[in-house]
UniProtKB/TrEMBL annotation:
Gene3D superfamilies the record matches: D-Amino Acid Oxidase, subunit A, domain 2 (3.30.9.10), FAD/NAD(P)-binding domain (3.50.50.60)
Binding site for FAD: A14, D33, C44, A45, G47, R100, A124, D281, G293, I294
Organism: Methanobrevibacter olleyae
Keywords, sorted A to Z: FAD, Flavoprotein, Lipid biosynthesis, Lipid metabolism, Oxidoreductase, Phospholipid biosynthesis, Phospholipid metabolism
Identification of the protein by name: Digeranylgeranylglycerophospholipid reductase
Tree of life domain: Archaea
Function (record text): Is involved in the reduction of 2,3-digeranylgeranylglycerophospholipids (unsaturated archaeols) into 2,3-diphytanylglycerophospholipids (saturated archaeols) in the biosynthesis of archaeal membrane lipids. Catalyzes the formation of archaetidic acid (2,3-di-O-phytanyl-sn-glyceryl phosphate) from 2,3-di-O-geranylgeranylglyceryl phosphate (DGGGP) via the hydrogenation of each double bond of the isoprenoid chains.
Residues involved in a 2,3-bis-O-(geranylgeranyl)-sn-glycerol 1-phospholipid binding: T372
Pfam families membership: FAD_binding_3
Note accompanying the cofactor annotation: Binds 1 FAD per subunit.
Amino acid sequence: MIKTDVLVIGAGPAGSTAARFAAKGGAKVILIDKKSEIGAPKRCAEGVSKKTFDILELEADPHWITREIEGVRLVAPDGTDVWLTNDVVELPEAGYILERKVFDKHLAMEAGREGVEIRIKTQAKSLKKEDDGSYTVSFESMGEVYDINTKILIGADGPESHVAKWAGLKAYTKPKHMESGAQFEMCNAKMERSDVLEFYFGTVAPGGYFWLFPKGDDIVNAGLAIIPEMADKSAYEYLVDAVNDCYATKDAQPVELNVGGDPVGGLVREMYGDNILLCGDAASQVNPLTGGGITSGITGGKYAGQVAAEAIKAGDCSKKFLKKYDELVRDDMGHDMDKYAKVCNYLWTLDDDELNSIAHAFQDIEFTKISTTELVKALIKVQPKAALKLRKMFL
Ligand SMILES: Cc1cc2nc3c(=O)[nH]c(=O)nc-3n(C[C@H](O)[C@H](O)[C@H](O)COP(=O)(O)OP(=O)(O)OC[C@H]3O[C@@H](n4cnc5c(N)ncnc54)[C@H](O)[C@@H]3O)c2cc1C
């Protein structure tokens, strides 16, 4: 039987980061992914903030950055738009559009260079808790079935996490908090500015929004996410309509279709247990308002790897020891997740007319700095209903 200190299931951004930091901390680590090519297919619009690279302790690399972002355009259902670009406002959360297929692979390579053993095209099928507390996970790879025994198991297996379910952790995302996303990567798009992210709100994407994230030249990720309970057709059907109705994409051609779930209910109840940690989408480490999970998943992955290595060194993989991971994550992102979940719930109550009137009022506001929090503060200023619900948290 293969034995290891730390076994990470899932080589997305969260898992590769967890594996790398666990190895940096001196643990023997195996990283597993069912895909034959790490990072492909992507399920992502590929936007990240620049702070992600500080968390990773890596330089941003032109090999996996397709575009630097200089602003955002917010579009109401009636077409009223608000441009917020860094020639007029400060954009502290500005970032990049990645090439995830290259980026995810690069993160796994960084883990490999740190001494992590990587096994691709290897799918976790089940797990068993041993009497000494360790986990034995059964895998299938190229027709072969085998087991790996680990002192600490890190579940980084994405939004549909089986690890969490198999281990019996309370890590369930309610259907009303699981967004369904669909996206085309397209060429021949006619964006007004190819360095500005565009967001379209309202019935175009119930419970979410339609986005255009430019990847350079005439290439764009045109996608949307919806809450199925609030919608009357599939995310794919909304996407086809949105793309056909949008000036920038009506003549564009798809070269890729990406579909996937995005958990937006805030952190799951149990991110850890005896000998086990969850990180990334598996722990719902996703901003409930934007649906962005790369930066927060990497943050969670880093903490998971660091705490796992400490536990191995201390010879204590108990729930009591691993609680430190939960504390680090909740201190770092718990408060923001709660805040943004409230804003998200509030936005879901607005109809197209209300969104239009907010956009009209936004046109009279002189923004000096743009971040998610600054936008919510502006919303509170122009919408008495918003003030009632959100004032305490943001002002
Ligand atoms: C349409 C869409 C657009 C998005 N756009 C953005 C965006 O612009 N910016 C942003 O920050 N976030 C975005 N997100 C969210 C973002 O993609 C995720 O939050 C992020 O990928 C989570 O990383 P992760 O490592 O936790 O999981 P994942 O990237 O999902 O990786 C999980 C890995 O686990 C592997 N795996 C699963 N089960 C097993 C198994 N049994 N055995 C072995 N391997 C397994 C999978 O193959 C996969 O490689 C978007 C999501 C969607 C759906």
